[in-house]
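Suppose you are handed a protein chain with no further information: no name, no annotation, nothing but its sequence. What can you learn? This example shows the usual starting point.
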Amino acid sequence: MTKDSFWLGRRVLLTGGHGFLGSFVRERIAARAPAAIFTPQRSELDLRDPAAVRGWMREHRPDLVIHGAAVVGGIGANRAHPGRFFYDNAVMGLHLIEESRLAGVEKFVCLGTICAYPKHTPIPFREDDLWNGYPEETNAPYGLAKKMLLVQLQSYRREYGFNGIFLLPVNLYGPRDNFDLETSHVIPAMIRKFIEAREGGERQVVLWGDGSPTREFLYVDDAADGVVAAAERYGRAEPVNLGRGEEIAIRDLARLIAEKTGYKGEIIWDSTKPNGQPRRLLDVSRAEREFGFRATTSFEAGLAKTIAWYESSR
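A reasonable first move is to predict its three-dimensional structure. Written in structure tokens, the prediction is:
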């Protein structure tokens, strides 16, 4: 099946379609001209309410569901709201998967999180290591809530023949990201802090942790390409990493963003704050092997585009 024939006549529900990654996925699907693409916001469809989900499915009859909605945030937000992050992310997915099964949805694409991996997963993270330990404590409730959806999809495949796939995107960044310092992830938070310090003539910027952990980052355009490619061409039970397969230390990331934003002052590390997971680096071979996905945006190019977008749009 070609990618164009896959979308022909397709009725698509994309949850989180007005969010960061979801907006890029929505644009790609729209360009493929399906029969319909639905991107309801919470005021239109509360995924935590099973009756609302059931009624919506009956009215709109999607045959493909891409579940990208999530309650997300950085280390601070995860520490402040572990209960909300667990409950909302779990019940949204549980209800949507069950109602999709009952409604006869042909395929379900679920976006998980790299936070589902054990805290001390060997590098690079391989999908087979997903169950070999407990996630890093600060974001474990979020990671475990998402991981339960993988269990649900695999169970439903065995019992009902339900075609659900599960993707594990690494840390995303890019234009349209969330730059709110209370809830943002590391790259947008650093960009905003350094630009505001530059403009305010501040001589110091304080960052959380000691700068030693490593992270892998995937540009949002590449991530959207991966989601769409998986929807078109992947149909197996095993979860799949989406990433670049490259890591950078947070300390080096800070220096790079400071340089690119023109911040000349000192960077202070507050080691009383948590580091989060020690290292993150994915084995990305399964995605390339199974549905031909490989990230194409270099980290420096993606970072430059993200900074330029923030400078021009704030």
